[in-house]
Structures are given as C-alpha cells and as structure tokens.
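Fig. S4 source data, part A: sequence.
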Amino acid sequence: MNIVNKGTAYWQELDRQHHWHPFTDTAALNAKGARVITRSKGVYLWDSEGNRILDGMAGLWCVALGYGRRELVEAATQQMLELPYYNNFFQTTTVPSTELAAAIAKVTPEGLDRVFFANSGSEAIDTAIRMVRTFWAVEGKPEKTWLISRKNSYHGSTIGGTSVGGQGAQRAQGGPVLADIAHVDQPFWYAEGGDMTLEDFGLERARQIEAKILELGADKVAAVFGEPIQGAGGVIIPPDSYWPEVMRICRKYDVLLVADEVICGFGRTGNWFGSQTFGIEPDLMTMAKGLSSGYLPISAVAVGNRVADSLIAKAGEFCHGFTYSGHPAAAAVALRNIELLQAEGIVERVRDDIGPYFQDRLASLIDHPLVGKIDGIGLIAGISLVDSKSPKKFFEEPGKVGLICRDHCFNNGLIMRAVGARMVLAPPLVITRAEVDELVSLARKALDLTAKDLGRL
C-alpha cells in the first residue's frame, strides 16, 4: 500500500467519506481529519507525516509485547498456511484452540479449568451473562437473574456489555438495555471518599453491594460483575479493604462473582491477572486484549468448576457461540503470546522491576499544579487533574480539561488517554526504563501546556 505517494490528505478524505469510527464524534473528526498511523515498532507508532509517537496506552490497553513481534506474526502465518480457519461447532476442534484453552487454564486462578472462546471483551461479557443466568436456571433457581455492577464501570459496547456497564452516555444510546441489572457506587476514594479513611470507604462501597442484594432479594441475584481495576472508567483502583469484603458478601448470599479481566489480565498489574493481585477468587473470568497482545482478535471466558460442571451436566446444548470462537490463527497467536510472556519473564518484570519504576517516575508529577493524585499499580495508572489541590476542587468541565491535555500529548509525541479530567496510562509491558523516562517527560510537557492554556503557568 503506497501510503507515502498518495499522501495524508488522500487517506483523510477516503476516511472521511467511508470510515465510521468507534466512540467518535464523526462530524468533529471529519472536520479535523483523522491522524493516519502507518507503522510501529516496540512502544512507538509513526503517522503518515513521519511523526514518532510513544504509545502510552498499548493501543487500547492490549499490545502487551509491543509492536513488531515477529514471533507472533510467524505464528499467525504458519497457522494460516496449515489451517486458516475451521469452526469449533459440529463436534470438532482445532489444535491451537485446544492447546490455548489448556494454556489459559494453567495461568488462571485455581479452579478456572474450562475456557469458552469469543472474539472481543464485549462478547466475553455477553457469554458470561448467558452462562450465569443459565447456571441458575439449571440449578432450579430461574428467578436468580439480577446482575449487580458499578456506576462508571465499562464492560464492553454490545447490548449486554452496555447493560452491565455503568457509563451513562453509553446506556443512553440504543436502549432499552437488558432488564434485571442494578448498579452501585464505584470505589473511587479520591473523588468520592470525603473524610472517610481508605479502609472505611472500601468497606462502605463493598457493603453497597450487600445492601443491593438485600433490596432485590438474595434469591433474585445471580452475580456481581467487576473489573479488579476499573480501566476505561479512569483507572479506579479500589482500597485494599474492598475486594475481600465483596467476596465475603458474594459467598454469604450465594451470588456468583465475575471478574472482568479484559484490561487487567496477562501481566498488566504485575500478576497474570488482576484477581491474583487483589486476592479475588472469581467464579468466572472474562479476558481479551493482552491475550493475543492485540495482534488478532480473540477473547475468552474462564469458567470455574462449579458453574462449568453444572452447565455441562444439566444444560445439554449451550446455545451460544460465534463463527470465529477459537479461530485457529488467533488462537495460535495467543498461545505464542503466552509462551513469550512466560519465556521472557514479562509478568515478573512488571511486578518486580519496570512496574515499580514506572510508578516511581510517575509519582514525580505530583508536584505539578494540575495533578491532585496519581493512582497506579504495575503498568497501569490514573492521574487526577484538579482545579485546586488544597482545598481539593475538581474542574467544573472535567471533559474539556482532559481533552486539552490529551491533545497536547498527541501533538507532542505521546498517547495518554483522557477519561474526564483523569489522564490514564497503560504502556506496553516491554517498555524500557529509558522509554518510561521519556513518557514521563512528555507527560509533564503536556501538563505544562495544559496549565498554560488554563492560565495556571
């Protein structure tokens, strides 16, 4: 594809005429023109104008092993030459999907031994919804249909994912959403904790789940859905007291716990899964993104023995699946991805070396007049931008401030995402210390330019 000769304007116009982007104000983008990304290597991207950009978001939280990993390309190529596609319907399997299921079962928390494949995190969430409700039906409790999630949570953009998710703008479009879904407050201490201690706030937010279960009736509640860390909600890291209390509540009332590991999974927090970082023992676990380092679309639901054994024994045919569930090429890439994560000690490196270094360097930004608090663990972090540090005052138009900072990042060689007035980062797991230093330097520059625009510098 001769991108250089055709030029940026050509591709922007073609994009403007035919390409409808996800989660985008299309009219505004068409007026501006999309930035055309043409190549990549390691933690860097290049656009059609030759500008180099440090990808502080690993694509969409997914490019764990960085760009240009020949091993993953070769895994896809070899599999496509041998068996480019066959389905897992009709009582058949393929070698890559079978081997990948076994590999996933080895790195997930104990007891999550069965794996169901889909193609995206959204599809994995829809799968988990159907599994949970079908489980209770075959267990003789069909009235247990209610699902509890958190406000500001993100669980995908299908109807099922949007319904379980707690983001208002999403839920406002394309309704009505699924029935029997309730939301409780998120465990965001800095913004919502008031004078409470971290421990007390974590317990209070967890006990909102208990109150909701009692309000609905424990005999009506099927499951609680939650990300170990709320990613697209702004990297909301719960207090240490939160998840143990949520688990206690779920076990007390016999409510299933679904851990959405789409963002946290495969090393992001310094363990294979965020559930291991926070001591969560889920009944089901959804995963995607880092499963293949984003090289090919694939997702999965790891299912605990209680649920899997019941569905297998009592449900008969589970009438659910996708044409590309366990696609052999995607499965081959994901399998090779897991092998590389293991062989190169990537997860341990995030836990013991580059993760702590990343968090330490980011902490140096706390002296900036716009930075109220920095939260992070491993290679994921959220930076709260505030109108005033003391007394603490948030911006009246948080989205406006975040977009100003995001644009300064992008225009100066860094991708850092804005969620309201919260700037979030999740770079590739292979980022080096020198590249972390560069990222932090670029972030400070963007913060300075934002402060200048706001008349603070």
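Fig. S4 source data, part B ends here. The CA atoms of residues 125 and 161 lie 6 Å apart.
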